[in-house]
């Protein structure tokens, strides 16, 4: 008995495939003959034939008894192709609509591990269309340098804030050029903002957990942090409060002087982790 599994792949049931395949082979048959030659039970064969008639794959020739003939296989294949193309086009439209509805979902995703962080950072930088803003350390920058330079070559504007010395052609760099920056922070945070609407924020270290998001609030906070850092950098530069290659202690003293000038006290705003780290470093320095 012939196997008509290839017809099942076109949407026929097993019995429909047997009946249509048998009719293609024998051209015109009555119900009894179809059941006998196809192997489909007589109790089922007329139900199967009627389904094929409804599909347009079989034609009934009225008589005593009725006879049945298949439509030409070329016509069947053409009909299936047209139906599939129509269904695929419809599915594409519907899927596109579904994808568009949730295109701006404000998700927040944790990324654990340096390798995954670097991969995501490179992916985001490579996807930038107009602008990249970074708050970054030199070591992290060097890992991403080639991707950043490629973005600049594509015409993407790149703004970099850093406490260290970083040089890259075509980017705007705001830097304090501190020579012993490790004395300032107990961790190293990197912030990357892509086209003003997507960011990657994380800290280097044992935990190495980063956050990737399009959430407007988080992106705005990350942007504000970079803007404020740039503001203080330009103010300190304009007032000539620091020299190039200054120390961490020089930087802290300049910030302390500005805080006193503008009435900003320790109780008004403080990152306790950084504050305690810097306080300990200062006290240890005085003991020496």
How is this structure best described in words?
The chain is of the alpha+beta class. It folds into two domains: 5-97, Arc Repressor Mutant, subunit A, CATH 1.10.10; 108-287, Endonuclease Chain A (Endonuclease, Chain A, 2-Layer Sandwich), CATH 3.30.870.10. Helix content is 52%, strand content 17%. It has ten helices and ten strands. The chain has helices spanning 5-8, 14-26, 31-38, 42-55, 73-101, 114-127, 138-153, 216-238, 248-261, 272-287, and strands at residues 29-30, 58-61, 67-70, 108-112, 131-135, 157-162, 172-175, 188-194, 198-204, 209-213. A hairpin with a 4-residue loop joins strand 9 (198-204) and strand 10. The chain is rod-shaped, with a radius of gyration of 36 Å. The model has no long low-confidence stretch (mean pLDDT 88).
Write a brief caption for the model.
The protein is α+β, with helices and mostly antiparallel strands. The protein has helices spanning 5-8, 14-26, 31-38, 42-55, 73-101, 114-127, 138-153, 216-238, 248-261, 272-287; strands at residues 29-30, 58-61, 67-70, 108-112, 131-135, 157-162, 172-175, 188-194, 198-204, 209-213. It has two domains: 5-97, Winged helix-like DNA-binding domain superfamily/Winged helix DNA-binding domain (Arc Repressor Mutant, subunit A, Orthogonal Bundle); 108-287, Endonuclease, Chain A, CATH 3.30.870.
What number of domains?
2
The secondary structure category is alpha+beta
Q: Provide the spatial order of strands within the biggest beta sheet.
A: 4-10-9-8-5-6-7
Query: Low-confidence parts lasting 5 or more residues at pLDDT below 50?
Result: none
Tally of individual helices: 10
Helix and strand pattern: HHEHHEEHEHEHEEEEEHHH
């Amino acid at each position: 008995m012939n196997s008509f599994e290839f017809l099942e792949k076109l949407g026929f049931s097993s019995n429909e495939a047997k009946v249509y395949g048998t009719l293609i082979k024998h051209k015109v048959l009555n119900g009894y003959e179809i059941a006998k030659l196809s192997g489909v039970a007589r109790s089922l064969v007329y139900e199967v034939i009627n389904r094929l008639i409804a599909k347009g794959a079989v034609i009934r020739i009225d008589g005593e008894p009725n006879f049945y003939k298949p439509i030409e296989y070329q016509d069947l294949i053409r009909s299936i192709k047209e139906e599939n193309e129509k269904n695929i086009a419809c599915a594409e439209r519907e899927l596109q609509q579904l994808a568009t509805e949730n295109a701006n979902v404000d998700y927040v995703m944790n990324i654990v591990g340096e390798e995954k962080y670097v991969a995501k950072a490179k992916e985001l930088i490579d996807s930038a269309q107009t602008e990249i803003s970074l708050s970054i350390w030199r070591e992290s920058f060097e890992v991403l340098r080639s991707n950043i330079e490629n973005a600049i070559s594509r015409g993407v504007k790149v703004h970099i804030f850093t406490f260290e010395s970083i040089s890259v052609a075509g980017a705007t760099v705001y830097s304090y050029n501190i020579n012993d920056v490790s004395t300032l922070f107990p961790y190293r945070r990197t912030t990357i903002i892509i086209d003003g609407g997507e960011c990657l924020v994380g800290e280097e270290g044992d935990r190495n957990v980063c956050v990737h998001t399009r959430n407007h609030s988080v992106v705005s906070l990350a942007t504000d942090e970079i803007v404020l850092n740039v503001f203080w950098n330009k103010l300190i530069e304009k007032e000539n409060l620091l020299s190039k290659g200054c120390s961490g202690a020089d930087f802290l003293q300049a910030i302390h002087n500005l805080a006193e000038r503008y009435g900003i006290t320790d109780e008004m705003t403080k990152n306790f982790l950084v504050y305690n780290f810097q306080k300990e470093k200062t006290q240890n320095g005085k003991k020496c």
